[in-house]
Design brief:
The structure holds 2 protein chains of 2 kinds.
Chain A: H1 2-16, H2 25-30, H3 35-68, H4 80-94, H5 100-124, H6 132-154, H7 158-165, H8 183-192, H9 194-201, H10 204-209, H11 214-235, H12 242-254, H13 258-282, H14 291-309, H15 311-315
Chain B: E1 2-11, E2 14-24, E3 29-33, H1 40-47, E4 55-60, E5 63-64, H2 70-73, E6 77-80, H3 92-97, H4 101-104, H5 110-122, H6 138-151, E7 156-160, H7 168-185, E8 188-192, H8 196-202, E9 205-210, E10 213-219, H9 220-223, H10 226-233, E11 239-242, E12 245-248
Parallel strand pairs in B: 3-8, 3-9, 6-7, 7-8
Antiparallel strand pairs in B: 1-2, 1-4, 4-5, 9-10, 11-12
Helix pairs in contact in B: 5-6
The chains are: A mainly alpha, B alpha/beta.
Chain lengths: ~325, ~250
């Protein structure tokens, strides 16, 4: 735990001082040139955005896996993320110049609806196969995104749609990322409800036997997932596989008792995205590779690895 | 006391539990027996508010189970169903500790941990406390579930085929623990059992169901009889008295 925190700190410092414009500690202290401005307007917001998105999406994935009782279910493999994207598009079409808050609210409403629809679909599947459940989710997400693309095409918005759906931290500046702060109370709430989510993950029978208001806890969990997802999609875009890999790696080592797994999941999520972001900024320096691509490449590899080796671990 | 009055459960046209009335007395082991599809598990699920019924009333200590707040009932009545598939990776100790949830709401006191350790000891699970459930054999996992149910420390304990997956030694051990809970702590236990000889050796009373209807209810000695069992199972089972136990020889 300590070494992980240390690693996160080191990566954070690297992230703060990495970029086309040279920013140094002495430069900041002596107030040299516009270093302080670059630092506060771009570097600090970027770091915060990376950490909030990384921890947020990982925790959202963890909650979703518990509630759906499936290791492969995450906001991106269950249509929640795609629904949030559709929400943003609808907000842009309905309100001519939508404010951030309007977009956020509509995206949240859509993400929530998407999460509920997925759970309803899940309820009606008789044979809940480990692989079938995420496949259904991916199909559901595919349907939602094709609706989104169709609408965007009709209104000539394909390009701006791509601009937000691809996860990318390069556009994060002061004034454009603050919605991500909602991830902080959402993660705190997830920790508060950790035992209840674990219980819900044991299934309705166990949960009800122990006096848990099962439906209510599922609703709260889906609400948190939708909130985090909407905020991340709105400010950063979609980061694929994140909510899948991080919780699964933690689960392999620590199990699924959320009270124990959640802090590590949050921490590892932050490290993973921050590391990926730094790599993305270095590979073709001074240009950038979007985070969604870095995480996508690493993530799809790990996903296949989990699928192959994880049969026993996943179906247990 | 658990009272079941005129309870019916239908799936479509078919009544899987059909107008059943029975009483479970305090401080006794009551076994539900009967052929496959008799409605035993369905009845147990309804008694523990896990399943809605179509008709009738079920009260625990005079209170309708569906009217009592669920978290209050969880301190009074525990149920372990037959098919338990937990996909969550938990250690045995974590799983058992969740049995304290109705009291602790996740923040376990030292008193709670004592209950956890006692339940683990009852089921002889000490060597496995840090193992994940998916690293256990079927029998060990079953004992972990039973330990969790005992850890809930309720007056009423409902177990649906608790001997599933268990070898002889552990079957006898669980039944012995249940007997002790009744004698020493005045617990009330309702079991669904398939093996009539376990029912015969350990229960105070037996209730027999068949095709959703109650066919017989009475003291163990009144039920474990060749003529009564023939009525329940459509099978002639000679009964021998061996060392004070009535044993049915049904193997051939």
């Amino acid at each position: 735990m300590l070494s992980a925190i240390l690693l996160l700190c080191v990566l954070s410092v690297i992230s703060l001082f990495l970029g086309v414009r040279t920013v140094t500690l002495t430069g900041l202290l002596t107030g040299e040139g516009d270093q302080m401005m670059v630092f506060l307007v771009s570097r600090v917001p970027r770091l915060i955005a990376v950490l909030a998105a990384g921890t947020g999406m990982s925790v959202a994935g963890l909650i979703m896996q518990q509630l759906a009782r499936n290791k492969f279910v995450t906001p991106s493999t269950a249509g929640t993320l795609q629904s949030a994207g559709l929400g943003i598009l609808v907000a842009l079409l309905v309100f001519a110049s939508a404010t951030v808050l309007q977009k956020m609210l509509v995206a949240f409403a859509f993400a929530l609806a998407g999460a509920f629809i997925f759970m309803l679909i899940l309820d009606s599947i008789k044979y809940k196969d480990v692989i079938l459940v995420p496949l259904v989710g991916i199909m559901f997400g595919g349907v939602i995104s094709s609706i989104t693309i169709f609408i965007a095409y009709r209104y000539d918005m394909i390009q701006s749609l791509n601009a937000w759906m691809v996860g990318d931290f390069s556009g994060v500046l002061r004034g454009r990322y603050e919605m991500l702060y909602v991830a902080v109370p959402a993660i705190a709430a997830a920790y508060f409800y950790a035992d209840r989510f674990t219980l819900a993950g044991m299934g309705e029978t166990f949960a009800v036997n122990l006096g848990l208001k099962y439906k209510q806890i599922v609703n709260i969990g889906l609400g948190l997932v939708a909130l985090i997802t909407a905020a991340v999609v709105l400010t950063v875009g979609s980061i694929p596989f994140l909510g899948l890999i991080v919780p699964n790696v933690v689960s392999l080592f620590l199990g699924d008792n959320m009270r124990r797994a959640l802090p590590y999941t949050a921490l590892l999520g932050g490290i993973f995205v921050l590391g990926g972001d730094i790599v993305g900024r270095l590979i073709i320096y001074p240009y950038e590779i979007p985070i969604s691509m870095i995480v996508g490449v690493v993530g799809s590899g790990l996903f296949i690895f989990l699928l192959l080796r994880g049969e026993r671990y996943v179906t247990s | 006391m658990i009272e079941v009055r005129n309870v019916t459960k239908r799936y479509g046209e078919k009544a899987v539990v059909d107008n059943v009335s029975l009483t479970v007395r305090k401080g006794e082991i009551t076994s539900l027996i009967g052929p496959n599809g008799a409605g035993k598990s369905t009845l147990l699920s309804m008694m523990s508010r896990l399943l809605k019924r179509d008709d009738g009333e079920i009260t625990v200590d005079g209170q309708e189970v569906l009217a009592v707040k669920s978290d209050e009932l969880a301190k009074k009545l525990a149920i372990l169903r037959q098919e338990n598939h937990i996909s969550v990776r938990l250690t045995v100790r974590d799983l058992v500790s969740f049995g304290r949830f109705p009291y602790s709401r996740g923040r376990l006191t030292r008193e709670d941990w004592k209950h956890v350790d006692r339940a683990i000891a009852y089921m002889e699970l000490e060597p496995y406390t840090q193992r994940f459930l998916d690293q256990l054999s079927g029998g060990q996992r079953q004992r972990a579930y039973v330990a969790m149910t005992l850890c809930q420390d309720t007056d009423y304990i409902l177990l649906d085929e608790p001997l599933n997956n268990l070898d002889m030694k552990h079957s006898v051990q669980i039944m012995g623990v249940l007997r002790r809970l009744v004698e020493e702590l005045d617990k009330t236990i309702v079991l669904v059992l398939h093996d009539i000889n376990f029912a015969s050796c350990y229960s105070d009373r037996i209730i027999a169901l068949k095709d959703g209807k109650l066919v017989r209810a009475g003291l163990t000695d009144e039920i474990i009889r060749t003529d009564t069992l023939a009525e329940i199972y459509d099978l002639t089972i000679p009964i021998e008295e061996i060392r004070g136990n009535r044993i049915g020889i049904y193997f051939r």
